[in-house]
Amino acid sequence: MVDNLLEFSRLGKTEIHLITVNISQLIQQVREQLQPELVGRSLHWEIEPLATVEADPVLLRLVLQNLLSNAVKYTRNNTEAVIKIGRVEQEQEVIFFVKDNGAGFDMKYCDRLFSIFQRLHPQEEFPGTGVGLATVRRIIHRHGGRIWAEGAINQGATFLLFAAET
Questions:
Q1: How far is CA 153 from CA 64, 139, 162, in A?
Q2: Nearest-angstrom CA–CA distance, 106 and 17
Q3: Span of 3-12, 126-135, 146-155 with lowest mean pLDDT
């Protein structure tokens, strides 16, 4: 937890190096990293073709690692887990999303999701430090974007983020 807290603190000071990043390639790399967690599971990925964005590739990878590993973690009790990754266009904005059919959450606590050390599920059920989504929010905000979530208990969660498309 101390390491996660130090990393979270450094994110506020780390210089951002913007380059054109292919999100689809980063997602594939993160999925490969997650393979050991998927052994013996029935998990279906639905991934739409995604665009490129101007972003820091190291920081964007950290965002995707957190979002995808959470989706994997919170669907582990599902017989048939599904994780969808895609994009929607709304009012001249491109919004990327990661959606799962996992444990979900009560929307009345949604504001706590992105706060450091705030957890909506017991540690025994879903281990974690409570730093991941706060890290994601910090990175997205530093890139000039925004992130929010939608969900329902036992009906999954969707994390949506806005980023400027190149």
A1: 23, 27, 24
A2: 36
A3: 3-12
Is residue 58 classed as helix, strand or coil in its secondary structure?
Answer: helix
Nearest to 152 by CA among 120, 128, 119: 120
Note whether 54 and 21 are within 8 A (CB). Answer: yes
Domains of the chain: total = 1
- The pTM for the full model equals 0.84
DSSP label at residue 99: E
The stretches of 21-115 forming alpha helices (DSSP H) are 23-34, 57-74
Token pair 């998990």 is at which residue? 43
Q: List the CATH number of the domain containing 55.
A: 3.30.565.10
Segments forming the whole domain that contains residue 122? 2-162
Bridge partners for 17 per DSSP: none
- For residue 31, give the amino acid letter: R
Residue 57 token pair: 């590739």
pLDDT tens readout for residues 79-127? 999 999 999 887 778 899 999 999 888 888 888 888 775 655 555 665 5
Query: Does the CA dihedral 77-75-66-112 come out positive or negative?
Result: negative
Neighbours of 125 (CB within 10 A): 10
Residue 122 and residue 60: Cα distance in Å, rounded? 28
